[in-house]
Design goal:
Helix 4 (94-116) packs parallel to helix 6 (158-177), helix 7 (199-208) runs parallel beside helix 9 (258-272) and helix 9 (258-272) packs across helix 11. The radius of gyration is 20 Å and the shape is globular. With 352 residues, it is α/β, with parallel strands linked by helices. Helix content is 44%, strand content 16%. It has 13 helices and twelve strands. It has one domain: Rossmann fold (3-Layer(aba) Sandwich), CATH 3.40.50.720. Bound molecules: nicotinamide-adenine-dinucleotide and 2'deoxy-thymidine-5'-diphospho-alpha-D-glucose.
Amino acid sequence: MILVTGGAGFIGGNFVLDWLANPVAKGIVNLDKLTYAGNLATLKSLKNDARHIFVQGDIGDYDLVLSLLKKHQILAVVNFAAESHVDRSIHGPGEFIQTNVVGTFNLLEAVRAYWSDLSDSAKKEFRFLHVSTDEVYGSLSPTDPAFSETNPYEPNSPYSASKAASDHLVRAWHHTYGLPVITTNCSNNYGPYHFPEKLIPLVILNALAGKPLPIYGDGQQIRDWLYVKDHCSAIRRVLEAGKLGETYNVGGWNEKPNLDVVHAICSILDSLRPKTDGASYASQITYVKDRPGHDRRYAIDASKLQRELGWKPAETFETGIQKTVQWYLDNQEWIDGVISGSYRDWVKKQYN
Ligand code: NAD
Ligand code: DAU
């Protein structure tokens, strides 16, 4: 079996579902703390699948992690678990340090203890894949080339600083102890099961509810969007063939200003679910206060992954965003489950 951490979150949940869609795939032990971002409804279709074992717990719990590794004779760890939302990290960075830094440290230590006791051949086969972000590289000017794996780390938010710290720990555990690690740094994901505090699902749901579509600052900040299932296929490929100790950038070659993304969503909704008053959903766009320290531009150069491992994304932004909007229109039950009291509290705090 493999151990997936954070497998009830957005990307981890998609990864678990895609992995187990292959009937001959190895089983998954899914360790997730079930914070506000973790949602078992995402994994509902696996209820009767014996290859999926869900454990509620913390990656920072050394004893729990070590016992799971031993009990299930884990062959690989894919670490998605993290606090992942930049805005929440600005309101309260403590949890980000706790999970992303201290949690990753404890996880690495439990994995090291387990791995050290494996036979030589099992040691060689074992993998620790750490899922990270492009935000660790900082912000680009309009004319800078896209981030490559050799860009220096220049994190700007409490979130990206905590992820950068975790990446450094992973690197050091390879360099010092020989732990067989690989790190991936991916750009912005979107797709099914995305928690609606992030831009794309927030805009879809606010549009349908007749609420303002909040644009931070001038809306000209650029993100490089990747459909989540393409991120999952990249991780599978890296796990299969990535070189130990290496890092791989993952991205979709889809740089877009935020305002263009919001307009794209509005025009899809205008055709799939026209407003009764005949207006466009774009009429709900509202400019709000900017995010403190807001990074201006991210762009990922994913050519190493394509050149060395033959990976490229299957979706363009146009095909991926169409599928995503349709998914939110078709999955009201999942949406109702996540828009709980605590979600409403967050929206009130962030958008006043
Ligand atoms: P998410 O917030 O949707 O999910 C995180 C999951 O981790 C949740 O299920 C949560 O319950 C769990 N978790 C949190 N703290 C935990 C702990 N201490 N122990 C165990 N589980 C814990 O995040 P996501 O968007 O799915 O991101 C997954 C990973 O990918 C993160 O490491 C993130 O930094 C990285 N990443 C995200 C994006 C993106 O666009 N969302 C892009 C690149 C990289
Ligand atoms: O780049 C990868 C990162 O992408 C991941 O590491 C993070 O985990 C993930 O959350 C995401 O971070 P961003 O801050 O880029 O994503 P978010 O969806 O929060 O915001 C996308 C852009 O949209 C960003 O420039 C801020 C802007 N925005 C966001 C919200 C929620 C708005 O203009 N209005 C909003 O209401």
